[in-house]
Fold:
Amino acid sequence: MCKFTKFLGLIIAIMLGGIAHASENHVVKMLNNGAEGSMVFEPAFIKINTGDSITFEMTDAGHNAVTVAGPDGSVAFDTKYKPSTVIKFDVNGIYLYKCAPHAMMAMAGLIQVSDANNKDEMAKAVEKFEATVMMPNVKTRMSDLFNSNIN
Ligand SMILES: [Cu+2]
Structure:
């Protein structure tokens, strides 16, 4: 094989690898009022692929996104009230996160990275979180979200 053919083969291999591992960025907004009610992440449930990232946008001021529970080996995140924070997700499984000041109003979200290997642990984490929700009208927001999206 001549050098050029080898080189071409290498380039093609890199390009195919790039396609297979093309990671995407998704946006989750933090809102005072959204389609699903007040004090919400939008979308509250999002399914992404391993290696994708999420940009948490503090559309309305005074919100954060902080990990409540995640799969084994994942790193907890905290957007610290910054206007925009990019978090990359490399560990498969379900993540539950909340807005610390509005957790009692059920301001929380679920992220599924590829699979649902930690579904049982996460069902318990959602139940535990829901016990801290004080507003009756959104008491089951997170378990409803969990049950309708994760199977
Ligand atoms: Cu909030």
In short: The domain at 23-149 is CATH 2.60.40.420 (Immunoglobulin-like). The chain has a mean pLDDT of 93.
